[in-house]
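FIELD: query
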Amino acid sequence: MFAHIQWPGEHRPLLEWHVRDRVSNLPGVYIMANIEVMKILSTQDRSRITGVQICERTQVGHAITTTLQSDLVVDASGRHSQAPQWLMELGYEAPPVETINSNLRYASRFYEKPDQFASEWQSLPHGHSGFILSVDHERWHVTLAGMTGKVPPINEEGFLKWAKELPDPSIYEALRIARPLTSIHGFGTPENHWRIRSLLQLSLTHTVSNAFSLLTCFIILLYNHP
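FIELD: result
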């Protein structure tokens, strides 16, 4: 199913660094650091969003508050977004929320890729239960996942046992000979939220998804659109 899919593998900080570097060099793009958005601004009749109020944290501990005017405001702050509260402060009802709960849990760690590893694959996905991604510096990013309340262990013995019990033994056989580089980290953000509120000339959209779900969607899109 995944044999024809090819994409570059890298760990998240490296990917985010390259994205930030590329975007920051685009014409008209300016990135402001140490900034916290305090609230959104609107016209006097509160019919249109006009910008945001921001607070800059200086190196000496002082806070400088100012405003940024804009025709469009995009909230990309993620799971802890204050957008619903900001809209309520403007007199609007809280945006309706659509929630999908897959109860997805996963555990990840990095391994050193064995020298001259005897396999044709570079990265090995396995449904919704296990994934080996070959990343930079000759490493593997390994993720084991469970749904409907099944939680992958974050201890050494349990992690390998979970891999061994997968229908396909390839992941376990690869991990058995690989050297762990990090501890095992567990994650649990099972709920995905979708909120949308249209404000005349502005549409404010906010989604909350977990990274594993987004990766699965990406693979599905590649598979259906070769």
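FIELD: remark
The chain has two domains: 25-99+189-224, 105-187.
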